[in-house]
Amino acid sequence: MKHLTLKALFISAFAAVSLNVQAADDTYAQCLADAETVIATAKKDGGPAARDVEQKTTVEACMAELSAIEAKYGDKTKGLNPSSVMTPEDRAKWAKLFDAIDAKKFTGTRYNMASYYR
């Protein structure tokens, strides 16, 4: 019985960790999807219509994801641009998320190009 209980404990712990990782990926993916929706709407119908798009995540949730990527590097980023110490994979994720946050706030180059120069 003890063996079965420990096995169940490890399985549930692994499932919880997997769900947390999946939730983090879901927030990241949702931030990117919201930004793409806003940009596509701005291209098609203009800026006022893009501002009316319902977004699934908040800017604060996306900022928390951005902070989580930066937190991996701790004190190495003090006084530096965080991307200067990141791995290429994290730098790419960080840059995409940064652009998505700009689009969600209706600012940034991609949003402005889509809404003003359509």
Write up what this structure looks like:
This protein has 118 residues and is mainly alpha-helical. Helix content is 74%, strand content 0%. Helix 1 (2-45) packs across helix 4. It is globular, with a radius of gyration of 19 Å. The termini are far apart.
Q: Secondary-structure blueprint of this entry?
A:
Blueprint: H1 2-45, H2 47-51, H3 59-71, H4 88-104, H5 109-116
Return the average pLDDT rounded to an integer: 83
Gross morphology? globular
Radius of gyration: 19 Å
Beginning-to-end CA distance, first to last residue? 67 Å
Helix and strand run: HHHHH
- Which residues form runs of ≥5 with pLDDT under 50? 13-23
* Main structural class: mainly alpha
Strand content: under 5%
Largest sheet: none
Helix content: over 70%
Tally the helices. Answer: 5
Counting DSSP E segments of at least 2 residues, the number of strands comes to: 0
Keywords:
74% helix; 118 residues; mainly alpha; globular; 5 helices
Short structural summary:
With 118 residues, the chain is mainly α.
